[in-house]
UniProtKB/TrEMBL annotation:
It comes from the Bacteria. This is Pseudouridine synthase. Residues 3-148 form the Pseudouridine synthase RsuA/RluA-like domain. NCBIfam families: pseudouridine synthase. One of its GO terms (biological process) is RNA processing. It holds the Pfam family PseudoU_synth_2.
Length: 226
């Protein structure tokens, strides 16, 4: 069995073929017969797991299991305590309430790559970064969650799944996991409890409150992924 992580760039499909000719994993990963674990939206960036281990793939991507994934989310405006509380308690998306999330403002911008296409922001409205950890996987869930509390997502990055992080991988780069990481991944999958609701499940960063600065106007981060 083989296990890899890829730092998926912006505007790349989490699949190996596309009839419309859009960029796919095939443009970056040359290893045959491996497949992505779950999905990451076309306009989102960050960690994608790839493997030929079908059992692990099922455990980590099936909605019946709760595996925590971490997202760094650049939003328009600076969310209030009330908005953060709503995210933590769950918000209603198309008639379905999301499971409780871990949500906090990042004190500083995480330090990562410049996006290939700069974000669009309004000069008179500051942006801020949130760390959101969820164990669901509803379609475009994080974006819909922040929009539901009044803070649209401008940029979305997934830097970790469980304790597994991107490290120093740049967009489009991938590497094979070492034996210790594979064991760690299997432990996560083995411990993941089944959901009793049957709802879809789908998640790194610092703790802290907003500094009140205007982060993200250049799409950059101050927090290092390591």
């Amino acid at each position: 069995m083989r296990y890899f992580i890829l730092n998926k760039p912006y505007e790349v499909l989490t699949q190996f073929t596309d009839e419309a000719g859009r960029a796919t994993l095939k443009d970056f990963v040359s290893v045959p017969n491996i497949y992505p674990v779950g999905r990451l939206d076309y306009d989102s960036e960050g960690m994608v797991l790839l493997t030929d281990d079908k059992t692990l793939q099922h455990r980590l991507s099936d909605p019946q299991f709760k595996v925590e994934k971490t997202y760094w989310v650049q939003v328009e405006g600076i969310p209030t305590d009330e908005a953060l509380t709503r995210l933590r308690l769950g918000v209603v998306i198309k008639g379905t309430k999301t499971s409780p999330a871990k949500a906090q403002l990042l004190e500083e911008e995480p330090q990562v790559w410049e996006r290939s296409t700069p974000i669009r922001f309004r000069k008179n409205i500051p942006t801020s970064w949130l760390e959101i950890k969820i164990s669901q996987g509803m379609n475009r869930q994080v974006r819909r969650m922040t929009a539901a509390v009044g803070y649209p997502t401008l940029r979305l990055i997934r830097p970790a799944i469980g304790q597994l992080t991107l490290g120093r991988l740049q967009p489009g780069e991938y590497r094979e996991l070492n034996p210790e990481e594979v064991t760690q991944l299997k432990v996560i999958a083995a411990k993941a409890p089944k959901s009793t609701t049957g709802k879809r499940t789908g998640t790194f960063g610092t703790k802290g409150k907003s500094s009140g600065k205007k982060p993200g106007s250049k799409g950059g981060f101050r927090k290092q992924i390591n």
